[in-house]
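Progress note, sequence design subtask.
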């Protein structure tokens, strides 16, 4: 006989015999009617656990992690309001059932059994997972999460205070609400839980409102590993900024009274509290788990003898609320009713196609109030002296700063957060002056914890804000990427689009930082983000594109409720020049606030049909550097800046490369796991006759010092690969090796040898005059190098116009 059946028969026998475990008498505060209602919720939770196991054995159910032993959570639900957002532990069926009693029109048994059966009629997940969650009950769905929901609970609690100061258009939660999150004693040891609890205390001691109730359900064991006795109390009782409460979770009267006190403290003081509930675990961890294989049978039986339902029957009788015979009838009737409902739920339809399953990956769009943008007066006040610089070319970092300013002026729900983003203005100065312009409420300096930064963003997104969190370096994301993969990206999927947490996650990353190295400051791997379904990845390469793309990213988050990653190439933040010092070839002017670049729109530079270079970020910069030599070699080239890395802009790439004879992919990420793999697959499948190659980084970390760029794509590597792909032999002589005077002498010698006609500037003539022999000057070079010398010469001395005239030729010859 399995333990579930043993517990069931023990309950029937002991109630009939009035054989109850010892315990305290009922505390004041819970009416008889409410106490009986809570008992009904407890019983339904127990019945659902038993039914879920029967459904699994019959091949009709697919999840058996139960809540038996934790039924005291019904009393916690009763102590809260149904509008208090609750992020639940996976053993909290009784909480959800009791909350359903507070909201009219609920059919909680039917809804939960549809979830057990994975029916597409499940009102929460639409058949995608057995989850605890309900839009009507303000319970965002959680699966079998191990504390990963705690950081966003902190964020949701923070949003309640922030909304009082800056009320967002799409606010979901009442201003006097609180947030609640529950978890087990084993989960409390997880770094995610410790980080969230630490963040709550860190925030609280600074007198920042954070109305959050942590509920730790301490059953003393995590699957098979015991929690040391007294550990939770010892580690949590004296946390700075967090008030500790403790209750016997087997006693619904005590649990309600203490939970009510804790909730009142949180609601009135706007500070976090920690409610420690002592519980037991019945049935083992899940359906397949047999606790007697790793615990003494006597310990398992001791927990079963301490069944919270037996305690509830005892307490109800002592309070005069319900006789044991009546309690037994409620139990038997509930079990029978649950079986009947389960039989019907098992017949309901399931998801059958990929398109059905994928339908909720992308959240629904929402209506937003139209805006005409900030007024001229508001912009002048915010930008101050920066306004005068907007007509001049600027590096990327400054244009991102201006774009953020305009977006925050236009949308009051936009909030920035991250390490050093406020007072310091970011380690690269990208967020300079933002805190001065908008205050610490909207430009939040966080503690050093990426999980908490992303949790803050997710939680605020739950409540109508449009967060723009910053991760200081790409490699730092790996400490916290499950907040995106396991929480933010899955929320619309598992809630069938009913819950969303839009955000624009800014990440400074990629390689080519001189003097920086290693894994942390020069990370060039995006694989951890690329395969997360539903996440958009944007990567600008120029300042103007960055401003216009950032506007689109915020629109996607605000209007379409998307999770967007905005990857900013660190090496391009300060980049000014393209070919030569002080040529200002990579700076751009600030685009007007009404300009944006739509999702999926790529940048096409040039019309050449010999070669299409498909690239992004630093690869775009390097490809532009390589372009003169490729053109000089007679390779007519177009450069395609992807801009959007996920989803791949397939149709735009197809059109942009149409008619090109060759395709070269330049990807600064590693050979394994980079965008180039997907791009090679795409071009191979869609243009199998078009020769395609790639230039990528090596599967290696980045070194510090002079070798920082050694494993990365380079200008020379792009030129070599392009000439090889197109079949043009690479000239071993290079004008790069000529001294500066060599450029001048090549151009001077050629110009002085022929009549001053416009055709003399034709590259084909220069090729004819120099190919395979001695150029008309002192330096022996091939025609390609001569062409390059000529072009570099023109560029360096800005005489392009003069080269078209005799006066120009004489001016140069006399230099």
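Output:
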């Amino acid at each position: 006989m399995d333990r579930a059946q043993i517990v069931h028969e023990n309950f029937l026998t002991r109630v009939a015999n009035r054989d109850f475990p010892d315990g305290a008498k009922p505390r004041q505060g819970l009416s008889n009617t409410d106490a009986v209602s809570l008992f009904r919720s407890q019983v339904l939770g127990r019945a659902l656990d038993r039914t879920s196991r029967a459904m699994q054995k019959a091949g009709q159910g697919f999840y058996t992690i139960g809540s038996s032993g934790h039924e005291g959570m019904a009393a916690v639900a009763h102590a809260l309001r149904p509008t208090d957002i609750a992020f639940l532990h996976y053993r909290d069926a009784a909480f959800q059932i009791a909350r359903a009693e507070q909201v009219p029109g609920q059919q909680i048994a039917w809804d939960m059994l549809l979830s057990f059966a994975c029916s597409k009629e499940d009102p929460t997940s639409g058949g995608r997972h057995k989850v605890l969650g309900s839009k009507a009950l303000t319970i965002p769905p959680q699966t079998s999460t191990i504390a990963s929901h705690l950081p966003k609970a902190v964020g949701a609690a923070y949003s309640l205070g922030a909304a009082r100061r800056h009320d967002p258009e799409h606010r979901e939660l009442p201003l006097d609400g609180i947030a609640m999150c529950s978890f087990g004693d084993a989960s409390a040891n997880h770094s995610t839980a410790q980080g969230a609890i630490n963040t709550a205390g860190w925030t609280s001691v600074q007198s920042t409102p954070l109305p959050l109730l942590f509920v730790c359900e301490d059953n003393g064991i995590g699957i098979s590993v015991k929690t040391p006795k007294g550990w939770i109390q010892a580690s949590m009782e004296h946390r700075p900024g967090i008030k500790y409460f403790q209750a016997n979770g087997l006693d619904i009267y005590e649990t309600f009274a203490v939970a009510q006190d804790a909730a009142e403290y949180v609601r009135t003081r706007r500070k976090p509290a920690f409610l420690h509930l002592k519980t037991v675990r019945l049935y083992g961890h899940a359906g397949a788990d047999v606790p007697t294989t790793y615990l003494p049978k006597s310990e398992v039986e001791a927990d079963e003898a301490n069944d919270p339902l037996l305690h509830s029957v005892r307490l109800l009788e002592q309070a005069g609320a319900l006789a044991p015979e009546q309690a037994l009838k409620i139990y038997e009737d509930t079990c029978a009713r649950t079986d009947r409902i389960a039989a019907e739920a098992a017949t309901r339809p399931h998801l059958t196609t990929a398109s059905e399953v994928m339908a909720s990956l992308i959240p629904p769009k929402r209506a937003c109030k139209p805006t005409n943008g900030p007024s001229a007066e508001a912009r002048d006040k915010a930008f101050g002296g920066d306004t005068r610089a907007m007509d001049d070319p600027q590096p990327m970092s400054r244009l991102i700063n201006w774009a953020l300013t305009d977006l925050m002026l236009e949308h009051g729900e936009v909030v920035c957060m991250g390490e050093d983003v406020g007072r310091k203005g970011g380690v690269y100065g990208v967020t300079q002056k933002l805190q001065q312009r908008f205050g610490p409420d909207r430009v939040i300096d966080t503690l050093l914890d990426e999980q908490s930064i992303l949790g803050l963003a997710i939680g605020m997104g739950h409540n109508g804000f449009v967060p723009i969190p910053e991760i200081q370096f790409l490699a730092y994301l790996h400490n916290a990427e499950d907040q995106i993969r396991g929480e933010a990206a899955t929320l619309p999927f598992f809630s069938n689009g009913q819950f969303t947490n839009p955000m624009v996650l800014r990440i400074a990353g990629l390689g080519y930082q001189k003097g920086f190295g290693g894994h942390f400051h020069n990370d060039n791997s995006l694989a951890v983000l690329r395969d997360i379904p539903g996440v958009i990845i944007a990567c600008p390469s120029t300042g103007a594109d960055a401003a216009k793309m950032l506007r689109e990213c915020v629109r996607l988050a605000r209007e379409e409720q998307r999770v967007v990653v905005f990857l900013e190439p660190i090496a391009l933040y300060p980049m000014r020049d393209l070919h030569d010092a002080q040529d200002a070839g990579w700076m751009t002017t600030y685009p007007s606030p009404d300009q944006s670049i739509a999702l999926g729109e790529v940048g096409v530079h040039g019309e050449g049909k010999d070669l299409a270079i498909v690239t992004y970020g630093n690869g775009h910069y390097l490809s532009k550097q390589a372009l003169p030599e490729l053109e000089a070699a007679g390779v007519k080239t177009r450069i395609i800046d992807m801009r959007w890395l996920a989803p791949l802009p397939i149709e735009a790439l197809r059109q942009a490369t149409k008619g090109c004879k060759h395709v070269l992919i330049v990807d600064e990420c590693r050979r394994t796991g980079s965008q180039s793999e997907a791009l090679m697959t795409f071009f191979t499948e869609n243009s199998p006759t078009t020769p395609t190659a790639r230039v990528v980084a090596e599967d290696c970390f980045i070194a510090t010092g002079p070798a920082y760029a050694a494993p990365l794509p380079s200008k020379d590597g792009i030129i070599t690969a392009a000439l090889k792909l197109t079949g043009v032999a690479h000239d071993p002589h290079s004008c790069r090796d000529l001294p500066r005077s060599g450029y001048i002498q090549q151009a001077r010698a050629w110009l002085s040898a022929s009549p001053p006609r416009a055709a003399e500037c034709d590259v084909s003539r220069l090729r004819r005059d120099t190919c395979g022999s001695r150029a008309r000057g002192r330096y022996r070079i091939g025609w390609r190098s001569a062409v390059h010398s000529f072009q570099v010469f023109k560029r360096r001395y800005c005489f392009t116009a003069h080269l078209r005239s005799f006066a120009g030729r004489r001016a140069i010859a006399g230099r």
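The chain is about 40% helix and 10% strand. Work on this subtask will continue into the next period as scheduled.
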